């Protein structure tokens, strides 16, 4: 298994590629270290690039989740396809680590501030009541 860390605007994405088996303990240690060192709270394991995952790989996903939680991180996964998707579904790992079909689905549910930032008129850190008061003044002044 290989991986890369992409720092997105509202979350860190760990893209896993290749085959994820019991032989991947060293890459998993690096994944955990990268997760713990990251600044953000939200992390997404992207399984869409995986060709294969076995039961040991599923077990290591649970270890990654536990380590992320102990570091105060929220972990979720993008479901893969083919054998990876079937294994994820059969093991019911989604009962422990939330699984999403798309990044958009993930953002909507897990990172609501990303959705709000795109649709809300407030600047980051701005008081919503101040925005509402300005809007009322503009409307009343007309």
From TrEMBL:
It holds the Pfam family STAS_2. PROSITE patterns: STAS (PS50801). Residues 1-110 form the STAS domain. It comes from the Bacteria. This is Anti-anti-sigma factor.
């Amino acid at each position: 298994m290989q991986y890369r860390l992409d720092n997105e605007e509202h979350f860190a994405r760990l893209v896993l590629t290749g085959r994820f088996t019991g032989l991947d303990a060293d890459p998993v240690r690096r994944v955990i270290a990268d997760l713990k060192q990251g600044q953000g709270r939200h992390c997404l394991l992207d399984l869409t690039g995986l060709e294969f995952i076995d039961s040991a790989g599923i077990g290591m996903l649970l270890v990654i989740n536990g380590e992320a939680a102990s570091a105060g991180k929220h972990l979720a996964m993008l479901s893969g396809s083919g054998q990876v998707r079937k294994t994820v579904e059969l093991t019911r790992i989604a009962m422990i680590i939330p699984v999403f079909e798309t990044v958009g689905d993930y953002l909507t549910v897990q990172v609501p501030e990303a959705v709000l930032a795109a649709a809300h008129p407030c600047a980051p850190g701005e008081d919503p009541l101040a925005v509402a008061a300005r809007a009322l003044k503009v409307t009343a002044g007309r």
